[in-house]
């Protein structure tokens, strides 16, 4: 249920993706790391919140995607900045769409910040062109179980050629 003071932000953090799926359209991904500087992202967050609050909004839904958003070099800093403002918000939720290809250590840090939000969720895109061995599939599944066990809501998006 959405509340009257909810402001929703859908943010594509960059088009860089570490996968090269045959079915991905050209604009959706890039080999080039095209991320905006972290400090600019943080200033943008502050500006968004300031303008939203001036209009009576103080609950925020953040939807972060890419390319592959976890490869933004400042992703965890951005998440920490959002989490640090949690006490000033009526409610704040974080959602990410990711191929979850980062190592488990990255996700261990992610959950420290994500669990500060009222709700944290991930749409985990299972790309079977990249998850092409039983070990890779097991690693993907293990990460999702780890995230669920630590309070992150998971949806699996099965991505494939029709």
TrEMBL record:
Keyword tags: Iron, Iron-sulfur, Metal-binding, S-adenosyl-L-methionine
CDD domains listed in its UniProt record: Radical_SAM
InterPro entries: Aldolase_TIM, rSAM, rSAM_sf
PROSITE patterns: RADICAL_SAM
Keyword S-adenosyl-L-methionine belongs to the record: yes
Keyword Aminoacyl-tRNA synthetase set for record: no
One function term, GO molecular function aspect: metal ion binding
Domain Radical SAM core: 1-162
Protein name stated in the entry: Radical SAM core domain-containing protein
